[in-house]
Every structure is written in structure tokens, then in C-alpha cells.
Amino acid sequence: MSARNILVINCGSSSIKFALVNEAQTTFPLQGLAERLGSPEAVIHWQFGDVKETLSLPGADHQVALGEILPLAQEAAGGRLSGIGHRVVHGGEHFTDARLIDESVIEGIRTSAQLAPLHNPAHLIGIAATMSLFPDLPQVSVFDTAFHQTMPPHAYRYAVPEFLYKEHGVRRYGFHGTSHRYVSKRAAEMAGLPVEDSAWLSAHLGNGCSTCAIVNGESRDTSMGLTPLEGLVMGTRSGDVDPNLHSYLERTLGWTIEQVDRMLNNDSGLKGLSGLSNDMRTLSEACLSGHPGAVLAFEVFCYRLAKSLAGMACALPRLNGLIFTGGIGENSAAVRERTVEHLKLFGFQLDAEANARCTRGLAGEIQAAGSPRVIVVPTNEERQIALDTLALLDA
Ligand code: ADP
């Protein structure tokens, strides 16, 4: 059988990220982004092999953009596309793993939309469009939340009245599950351990950031909660704050719930603390020249990350290693160094040269002799979604 091709699609409210994954190739034959959909500036950028192209599609919606993307994917796959994998942010408690899309799955995604009002409706538009354009291709949904459905109640329940959980789904779900699952499997391979008999702390540090405790290939706890706002300091998100902050700002500044939500999601995190940028690269450079806001943002980011990892350790029976991934985790030796300094009690120590070397997609172990493993693992959510899609096609 020749190597199969899966198109992986991630539909946002005004964008579609896509990648063609070939099971035998490490790079994507085709990848791209459609953005500003629904506006006069709608555009698709893609790279096919070494060639980069742009197509302007004024006013195009998801359906029109997918009408352009799908033939591109068929061409890149030599006319042999085996299926489509959709990233879906929220599967609520309905989905514990990837699913072949049928009416009941669509209904489950719709029901979970209350919990992800910006994301799930956009995913449904993408699914409807690809199903109408390619009715005969198998389509699979892979949920960001599914990996964390193995958390025990003592990790996922909030200490609020029971009816809020039972009747309204108020609990911790966690996100970035596809990434934590992928990197923990890779880390186990790199360490020569069976993933079913291994225990990891994982830090996914991108624009959104989360930690996870993974035991024998299962999530036991994670830092994000009902929504992706809980937990760590992120690019523009605050992470944990006092839950009374809403009422305090209402009383003192007269802010509405919407104003507080916007502030916590869009104006906080690295951006809010530094007053400079949400981007760790910019902040790392500014730290070198002693910018006080950048230094503070960097210090709070690393301290809070270390504190979360130390908390996650409660979910582990033993520890095989600490994994760093995501744009910051894969590239910032400074963040890794500072974070690990706060975790001395666990015996962690880095090898400075190995830490400096592991950037720009280079995976490797970076601990000093005698320290538990610390591993940099580039994440690859697209490949994991393609693998899940292929596994369902094989089943
Ligand atoms: P997303 O969550 O949108 O997928 P990424 O995983 O690409 O985001 O991570 C984006 C973050 O990674 C940004 O804060 C960016 O500054 C950071 N980053 C990328 N390269 C570096 C680097 N060399 N040093 C520090 N931070 C970096």
C-alpha cells in the first residue's frame, strides 16, 4: 500500500489553517492559511513543496475558501487523499477520543458549543463545507479536550455547588490535549521507555500555555480548566487570578463582565505585565537591555510555570522527565533555564550547552548529569491529528 495522505483542517471564526500530512514524509507536502474570511481582504497563503503562493478572494467565506483548498490538497496528494482530520477545540464530556464524523458527532460538537462559543461553531462550518464538497471522503474530528477526559474527579471538579457541574457542565476540561499526547509519546520513544509505563510533566508554551501530568499515556491533570484562560501566564491571557477580580472591578471601576473578560483574555499575560509585547522573542530581547516590564513579565511567566509544574507533580506516582514544547518551550533556552532553577527541589538541573543547542525544531535531552530528564520535543498537532484519522480508517 502506498503512503496515505490526510488533509488536516483547523477552522477558526475567520481563518482556516490546513496541512497535508503524508504518513511516510516528515515535512508537509502542502500547508497554508486562509485568513480574514468574510471580509474584503480574504486571502489564502500556501506553500506547495518549495513554492509559496497567495490567492486573494475578496468576500470569501469558509465554504468558498475550502472550495479552493480541497483541489489543492487533492493535487498535492496526487489525487489520492484518504481522509480529512478536523481539529475541534471542545468535545465536552461527549468525546474521549477521535471520532469518525456522523450526525451524532456533529450534534455532540454543537452541544459543546456553549463551552467554546468562538471555536466550535467555526469547526462546524468547516465540517459542513468539506462534507458537502467531498461527501465520499471519511472525515474525523480530533478534540483538544479528549485526552484530558482521563482526569480523576478530584482533578477536574471545581469546589462549587454540584448542580453547576451536573446540570451545566461546570468542571475543568483542559486543552492542548493533542499536543501533550503527541510530545509525551515522542519523549517516551526518545527515552527508550514504553509510553504505557512512563510518567511525565509536560509544558506546552505557545501563545496559549498549559502544563499536564501524564501517567502511562493518560492525562491525570492539566492547568487549563473550563476555558483556556485558567492556569499559566500566556501571551495575552492572565491565567489564574483571584475569582473575585470580576466583582472588585465592577465595584471599583464599574466594568461590565464583557470588559473584564476582554481584559483577561486579550490585554493581560505577557502583554499586560510587560506593557510591551505578547511575544516572548521581543521580550527576551528587551530583557537583555534591562526593560523593567519585560524582565517582570519573564520572571512571572517562569515562576508561575514552575509553580504549576510542581503542583502537577502531585498527580504522578514517579517521574521520568519534564517536557518542553510549543514555540516558547522549543526555542527559549532562557525560559527553560529560569523555570528549572525554580524546580531545584525536584533535583532538576540543565546542561547549559545542550539547552542552548535545542532550538528551531531540534529535539533532545538537556539535563545535566544526575538530574531527572528534561526533554525538548517539537510538537506536531497536525501529524497527531492525521495519525488519529488514519487509525480510525484502519479500525
Ligand atoms: P501558537 O500557540 O499560536 O501555535 P507558537 O507555538 O508558535 O504559538 O508559539 C508562539 C510563541 O513562541 C511566541 O511567544 C513567540 O515569541 C515564541 N517564540 C518563538 N520563537 C522563539 C524564540 N526563539 N525565543 C523565544 N520565544 C520564541
From TrEMBL:
The active site is at residue 144. InterPro entries: Ac/propionate_kinase, Aliphatic_acid_kin_short-chain, Aliphatic_acid_kinase_CS, ATPase_NBD. Pfam families: Acetate_kinase (PF00871). It comes from the Bacteria. The keyword ATP-binding applies. One of its GO terms (cellular component) is cytosol. Substrate binds at residue 87. Its EC number is 2.7.2.1. ATP binds at residues 17, 204-208, 279-281, 327-331. It is found in: Cytoplasm. GO terms for biological process: acetate metabolic process; acetyl-CoA biosynthetic process. It catalyses: acetate + ATP = acetyl phosphate + ADP. Belongs to the acetokinase family. NCBIfam families: ackA. PANTHER family: ACETATE KINASE (PTHR21060:SF21). Homodimer. Catalyzes the formation of acetyl phosphate from acetate and ATP. Can also catalyze the reverse reaction. This is Acetate kinase. The lineage of its organism: Bacteria, Pseudomonadati, Pseudomonadota, Gammaproteobacteria, Pseudomonadales. The gene is ackA-1.
